[in-house]
Design brief:
- The protein has about 230 residues and is α/β, with parallel strands linked by helices.
- It has seven helices and twelve strands.
- The protein is globular and about 50 Å long.
- The chain starts with 7 loop residues before the first strand and ends with a helix.
Length: about 230
Amino acid sequence: MKNLPPNLYPLTAFLGHVHLLVDGDECVLIDTGMLGELRFIKNQLHQLGLDWTSIKAILLTHGHLDHAGNLAALVKITGAKVYGHPEEQIHLEGKFPYRGVNRVCGWLEALGRGVVRYKPGAIDEFVQDGQELPFWGGLQVIHLPGHTRGHCGYYSPKHDFLFAGDLFLSYFCFHYLPPFIFSNCPERFKGSYEKVRDLNPSGILPAHYINADGRRFRRSIDIIWQRNFSRK
């Protein structure tokens, strides 16, 4: 792992990463993972001398199963408050009306909910673009639709660092947009990329990657912009 802020702990999940942000004896989670991640989260907390009660908030980037699959279980264990965009509650309930090629995403999520015996979670506090949250020295909500309508990132002004959720994926030397079968409003990606380029954080961390490197992932934004949007 390179070029990451202190007290940030990426935890490898079944299909991506959960991010644990520690501030003294309290911490927050960005997303919850789906299958088997509770053990990894618990182990990391114990290594830091913390326990489940240390988790004070869960911040959702969006409501897809691989990001919110453990939400109900974590709320029950920790009592943490859940923050997310209001457009994402319908995903948590498994009721989003997928259309066209996005029906593939809906079918896969329905299958996944059955396999993991998913229990719907709920957002306690709806967030909006630009809202300041009092965690980890301050986190700003950045609404970044494209993958879903309510997809959000979380920006730390203190560390000049953005948690970008599924704005993009990075595996080895490849950087790309999420496949459109999983993105229900891809026409909005361009505006979200413009917003991140204007914000221009020194580091970025998506949810799906290999070998975390905040500065390299910041360059991913420009690579994807040039490939997909610069001439449009």
